[in-house]
Amino acid sequence: MTALSDAAPDRASRTIVRRYYLAMSVPFLIDLVTSAVYVAIENDPFALLPMATVSAGFLLGGVGLGAYLLIRPVQRFLAGEIGFGEIEQRLASLPRHSALVVACLYAPMMALRLLSPRIGVTFGATIEVAAWIDTITTFFVVTSFNVVLTFFVVSAYLDQLCEHLFQYKKVNIGTFHGAFRRKVGVAVLFVSFAAIALLAGDIASYDGARLLREATVDVTASFVGAITIYYWISRALTRPITRLDHGMRRVADNDLTIRLPVTSDDEVGRATGGFNQMVEGLSERQYLRDTFGKYVSESVASAILDDKRRTGRAVATVADATLMFTDIEGFTGVSERLTPADTASILNTYLGTVVPAIQRHGGEVNSFIGDGLFASFNLPLPLEGHAAAALRAALDIQRALATVKFAGGVQLRTRVGINTGPVIGVTVGAADRLSYTLLGDAVNIASRVEQLNKHFGTLILATESTVRAGGAGLACVRLGETDVRGHQGNVVVYRIDPAA
User: Fold this and answer.
1) CA 30/CA 328 separation, integer angstroms
2) Helix or strand or coil: residue 453?
3) What are the residues whose beta carbons fall under 8 Å from the beta carbon of 298, sequence distance 6 or more?
4) Residue 10: enclosing H or E segment and its boundaries?
5) 22 vs 18: CA distance, rounded Å
6) Which residues contact 448 (CB under 8 A, 6 or more apart)?
7) 476 forms bridges with which residues in the sheet?
8) pLDDT of residue 122
9) Higher-pLDDT residue of 262, 473
10) For residue 121, with 0-12 CB atoms within 10 Å meaning exposed, 13-18 middle and 19 or more buried, which class applies?
11) Residue 84 per-residue DSSP state
12) Yes or no: is domain 311-496 CATH 3.40.225.10?
């Protein structure tokens, strides 16, 4: 299985290397097509062989050797012989170096082809001597065309190569010395002026039938060349942008797993690298939010992470809220009979039942207190109808616990106390140890009301403020006024029927 899994990357690596040689053979193929068009228009088929022979010698031989020297470091990296740092600069400069190789070989080839008829070397073909202006114009335009074409063909190839390296080697270009505007500028200027320069050279050099033939050749070559170079320019320049746009759409859909290959050393490559860093930061932020949210409520975690002042504190907020305290009935006696492992298992199962019930109704668990917890509704997260939501959550807790099987066959019942009133949500603690909590008399009352369940023999007690705010339609019984330790005045409490 391992051998098969290793074979696929090796096969893909060999294929991607071979594609570079194909990319570097494009000037030869273009030259061959152009030569065929020329001899067809000139009606001189014997001229094709010497032209193709010269082209093959310079381009297939010379460019092939140059291509080998340029792609060899990449092969060595793919084989694991050298590190990515040793090839990164060469990789980023591959289009420029490839174009330079073609320029160094195509220029002398064109010079030989254009000047050989002047010294009587025709290789057995009938080749007319071109005027000097036409010769110079043709030399610069045709050489420039193949150099520009090679640059963009190899740029398109580099896009595939970098994608391959990113997929199989998890590496990306991190050096940016190119300029996107220069690439576009060169492409636009060449396409705009190449045909004009050729026609101007023809007009300045010939007249009559010769002018018509030369102009026909140049117009045909310019048309084919424009289509060819447009295809490769658009492929080289737009594919990285399209990939970046796709990546942004994925992030907009909240997919933070997306990472993109950096396939050029210009502004687009830099933007792609920045995109990856941005997504990495968002992913880390999401991880912090999710992990932090396991220790404090997710809304508090979000408020702290979103604080532009970077104080590490949630902004203090005053609001009416409904507070809930829960406590397991007789848990001390249960824990004494069980092993610590069973006790922890029971407590985790209990909390795994109670917490989701609270969250389903929009509540936030602020803290765990021994075998109980403290939850709030409407703070820190705004919640319409928070009193009714808290009452429904309390009933939901009781129904859920009645169906849960705990370790050791233990059956648990929990007592719930609920109160509604004004509180302040604030971050408290020392500089290196902080905690978000809710403060206020309403919190103290809710805690005491939960403890009153022992006195009344009930499971859910709620104060009059909670029942008035959200108890419509619930089966509740007024138990009367009672004294609450730490609170001035009595509090009216209601028993909420879990069976309702």
Assistant:
1) 84
2) helix
3) 289, 290, 364
4) helix 2-24
5) 7
6) 417, 484, 485, 486, 487
7) 496
8) 56
9) 262
10) exposed
11) G
12) no
Taking each helix axis as running N to C, give the angle between helix 132-169 and helix 2-24, from 0 to 180 degrees, rounded to the nearest 10: 170
Task: Report the C-alpha gap between 365 and 489 in whole angstroms.
Answer: 28
Per-residue burial over 122-150, b if 16 or more Cβ lie within 10 Å, else e, is: eeebebeebbeebbebbbbbbbbbbbbbb
The residue extents of the domains of the chain are 2-252, 311-496
Q: How far apart are CA 166 and CA 263, in angstroms?
A: 9
CB-based contacts of 303: which residues, under 8 Å, 6+ apart? 314, 315, 380
Half-sphere exposure of 35 (CA within 13 A, CB side): 22
Three-state secondary structure call for residue 127: coil
Least confident of 160-174, 240-254, 291-305, 334-348: 291-305
Question: Which residues on neighbouring strands pair with residue 481, listed in sequence order?
Answer: 492
Between CA 100 and CA 119 the distance in angstroms is 29
* Nearest Cα to Cα of residue 151 among 176, 184, 175, 198: 184
- In whole angstroms, how large is the CA radius of gyration of the chain? 39
Whether 22 contacts 152, CB under 8 Å: no
Bond preceding residue 117 cis, omega within 30 of 0: no
Contacts for 156 with CB less than 8 Å, ≥ 6 apart: 23, 232, 235, 236, 239
Number of residues in the chain:
500
Residue 187's nearest CA partner among 138, 150, 162 is 150
Residues with Cβ < 8 Å from 353, sequence gap 6 or more? 397, 400, 401, 404
CA dihedral 64, 65, 67, 69 (to 10 degrees): 160
Residue 414 — pLDDT band, cuts 50, 70, 90? very high
Q: Do residues 421 and 441 touch, judged by C-beta distance below 8 A?
A: yes
Q: How many other CB atoms sit within 10 Å of the CB of residue 14?
A: 12
Number of H-type helices and E-type strands within the chain: 16, 8
The CA-to-CA distance between both ends of the chain, in Å, stands at: 60
Q: Using CA atoms, how far apart are residues 312 and 134, in angstroms rounded to an integer?
A: 74
Which pTM does this prediction carry? 0.62
Between strands 460-463 and 414-430, the pairing is parallel
Distance (Å, rounded) from C-alpha 76 to C-alpha 462?
Answer: 74
Residue 498 has pLDDT above 80, yes or no: no
| Whole-number pLDDT of residue 292 | 47
Helix (H) or strand (E) holding 434: strand 433-439
